[in-house]
Design brief:
By secondary structure, this protein is of the alpha/beta class. The chain has 12 helices and 9 strands. It has a single domain, classed as TIM Barrel (Alpha-Beta Barrel). The radius of gyration is 18 Å and the shape is globular.
């Protein structure tokens, strides 16, 4: 981890600690009913047999009855979309293989736990929302990638079954074969640009870290009847804050715990 990543991670850990300690008003029953909890890379810990972005992690999310799963796609040498966050397999699997240097068959021979997007769509499609993130990389042979993406998702319907997201707005514009309401741009600290872009392109809405998604952007999107997703909501009080702000989609590394809290309040 370089210094920038260390600083980034440290800031969010401190933010989560502070937000968890601040009491919040309990959201209304309707707000709990409208809450959509999304499991960030599935439900996993990377320390046991359950690794991120695997069928096992997605099954745990399905079992927890959360609204959706966020998953990342990379592209193999034969331009097949596979579900993996990093450009290499080093961090998760301990052996460094560049994803785009091998074919799908070669990759799964070495790492059977890495699923193709088609495998995920076939197993979990229509059971849980798929929120698919395009990662920054060279998009050579764009038409072939698009065809392979369409093939993987051919049995699913945009918005009803899946959305696309990206930190790179230009990737959403490249992979533009679906209705505009199927796309969410993600902001870091550039939420004004992202919020304006989402309205201009008539995207589904915006995504961003809950610390940087200011109320002015929330209101801008709500007035346009768009959706909002904030991420890395990890505590009850942080979740209550977001629901009270009118945000309905919450991405979390502890999605099962947040869903359990919502379920308890809905039983009252």
């Amino acid at each position: 981890m370089n210094f920038s990543e260390w600083l980034h991670t440290g800031f969010f850990k401190i933010s989560n600690f502070v937000m968890a300690a601040i009491p919040r008003n309990t959201p209304s029953r309707l707000q709990f009913q409208n809450a959509k909890i999304m499991a960030h890379r599935g439900i996993h810990d990377n320390a046991t047999l359950i690794k991120e972005n695997t069928l096992a992690a997605f099954q745990k999310a399905l079992d927890a009855k959360v609204w959706g799963i966020e998953l990342d796609i990379r592209w193999t040498r034969d331009f097949q979309p596979v579900v993996h966050h990093d450009a290499t397999t080093q961090r998760v699997f301990g052996k460094k293989i560049l994803i785009n240097s091998v074919t799908l068959a070669e990759l799964q021979n070495m790492f059977p736990e890495i699923p193709s997007l088609k495998q995920v769509a076939d197993r979990f499609g229509k059971k849980i929302k798929l929120v698919i993130e395009f990662k920054a990389e060279n998009y050579l042979e764009l038409n072939q990638r698009k065809l392979n993406l369409q093939q993987a998702l051919k049995n699913l319907n945009p918005m009803e079954d899946f959305y696309f997201i990206s930190l790179e707005p230009e990737l959403l514009q490249k992979m533009n074969d679906y209705p505009s309401a199927c796309y969410f741009p993600i902001g870091r600290i550039n939420l004004k640009i992202i919020s304006d872009l989402a309205l201009q392109k008539n995207y589904a809405g915006i995504m961003g870290h809950y610390i940087f998604t200011k109320n002015c952007y929330v209101q801008q999107q709500l007035l346009a009847e768009k959706q909002l997703c904030t991420g890395f909501v990890e505590s009850k009080n942080a979740m209550f804050r977001e629901l009270n702000r009118g945000i309905t989609i919450l991405s979390s590394n502890h999605a099962d715990k947040l869903q359990a809290i919502i379920n308890r309040y809905l039983m009252l």
